[in-house]
Every structure is written in C-alpha cells, then in structure tokens.
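As a warm-up, study this chain.
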Amino acid sequence: MKINEIEILGFKGIPHLTIHPKQINILVGKNNTGKTSILEAINSTLELSMYGMQLKYEPHLSNLINVNKKESKVVVKLENETKYLLLKSPELKEIIPEFKKQLIDKIKAISPRRNNKAGWEKTEELLDKALSKNDLISEIERESIRVESGNKVFYIFSYTDLILKEIEPLLEYINKTIFRVSRNVFPILLRQPRFIYPQTEEKSKKTLTFITDLAINERLISTLTKSKINEIENYLNDRKILENLERFDFDKLLFKNNENEYEIPFSFMGDGFKSLIGLITRTSNETKIILIEEPENHMHPIYIKELIRQIIDFSISKDIQFFITTHNSDVLDVVSTDMLEPKYQDYLSKELNIIRLECLDDDIIAQELNREEALEELEELKLDLRGR
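Now compare it with the structure written out below.
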C-alpha cells in the first residue's frame, strides 16, 4: 500500500492542496501552514479513525471543515485503489432524528433499566420538547458533521455546553426516574468519543501508524512480544548503537566489557535513545505507512542522524512509506547533505520528497523538492523552521 497522490480540499486550514509523495516525505514550513493537518487528513481517510479526531476536537468537531468551505474532502490515491473522506455540514432534516437516536442510545448503554418503556417514552417526549427550541437546533446544526467514506455514512455530534444546558431537564428526569448517577456523569458520557466502524481484516492488520510522540511508554511495552524485544536487541547490535551491549529488555540493559558485566536500568537511558526504540516497537510486517509528528523532540543531533538511518532502513527492508513533520534544521542537514553514508544518500536521492508549505494570502501552497533541490534551498528552508 503506497500513496501516489493526496488531494485535500477544505480540511481544517487547508483550502486546496495536492502533493505527490515518495517513500520518505518530510513536511516543513512555518507554524500554521498545515503540516499536522496533512498527517491528520491521511490518517482520517485511510483509517477512518474519527475516534481519535473526536478526542482532539470535541466539543468543536465542525472545525475540521475549513471556515471558508461548505465541505471538506480528502482523496488519497493508492497504487491499486482510491479512498476518500467527505465531511460536510448535514441538513437539519438529517441530523435531528440521528441526534435523538444517538443521544438515547448513549444513555441506554449505561442504564440498568433499559426495559422501562414508560420512562423512555417520557424521555423522548422531553427530548422532543427541548428540540423545539431554536437555540438548541441551531447549535446542533452548527456543531455536527456528516462523514462519508465509500458507501458508509456517519453523523457525529459535539455536545457543547449550550447543548448540555438545553437538555438538562431531560437528564434530570432520567436521573430521578430511571436510574441515578452522579450529576457530572452525563456530560462525560455524552462527550465520550463514539464512532462505529466495522472491523475488517485489513483494519485489524494496522497498515498505517500515526505517531504523535515517539517516546516509549508502559502501555506500549506491555503489548510487546519476546520476538519483538529480540528484534530491538538485534537492531541495536547490528547498528552498533550501544557499545558492548549484551542483552536488551525494558527492565535493564546488560553490558559486557571484557570480562566485566554491568547493568543500566532502561529508565536511566536518555530520551533520544528511547525515541529510537519507540519507532522500532511501532513497526510490523503489516505496517506500510507511518506518520510521525516532530520525531526530533528531546533528541540529540547524534540520535537524529541515527533516526534518519533507521527510517531509511525500514523504508527499504519493510517497504514503509514515511510522512514526517519537523521544525528541526538538523533533520534537513542530515537528509540533504553528505552526513550519511553513500548508500543512504543514494536512496534519498531517489526517494526523498521535501514538502515546503507556505501561506499565500488565504491559501496554502506546497513546493515539492527532491534531495538536490532541497540542498540548493537549504538556508531558505531553515529560515522557515525559525519562523521568519
């Protein structure tokens, strides 16, 4: 699965943008030029992961649609198929029945008395009364989106403070009559992301990974198999990243120097090293596209160089396509100059795409540069990273 073209229309702050990716794509530009938005557009289209988008944008999901557009569309052309995501403000006649259904379903999901027919009929009556108010209808219309992908259509609602205030009599009735819960539970329940997506075989393989923080954490460690830990150890030894490493695990690292052995707790290792480990743990044979947001955070320049080597190695050996945002000039130096070994430079000469994003009036434009062109404009690219 390789992306050949991405077209974005009206997604967040991007009015219209088309890019033609290679294997390793590095997005640069000043702040607010759409770097992260491009990653989110790719992720939302290929994974349809509105759960994550709700977590980030609740209670204002409508912000996903550009303020100057009526709808948002992302088209991702893969090698063998084309996928799209269409977001738009739904018509009122569509959203009111769906709003009622989702609201009642959410409350029933935690209710121990789902068969209380009279109670639920009264609940719907109170909801209909609330929905007769223009302020509530206008807010629902403003804070809802219609999601279309292929033959699937979904409606997602943001439960803003105004919506919660207008349906408060309904929630109070449920609390007093059907089942009692803490007063603060309903707002938490209703704002809990809920996006139903059929789990397909392809979905379960997780062909795309979106990494917003490379750092390793306990939850991720708990999911790793022994074979994955061995893979990390072999990679560290093959690349000679840690001298005299005898054994690796997430408790302690064992080193052997001549006949002397000593251990260092994994927690004592630096953030840069942990970020390298974080990338290895998030790759698999099924992973074909990896999106990384500012991988250089907390990373020494030496480790940045090793990270780029690691990315190239995975791109070659596992056929992974990378999309990376950065604000770090060291990243540009490593990929565009002669800091890497010739074999890596040769690969980047064929497969590196520097995507320079700029704001022009009310538009965002993309300049795509190969390695040679990036070297010629290196100083200008660095000025963008400094925000000038």
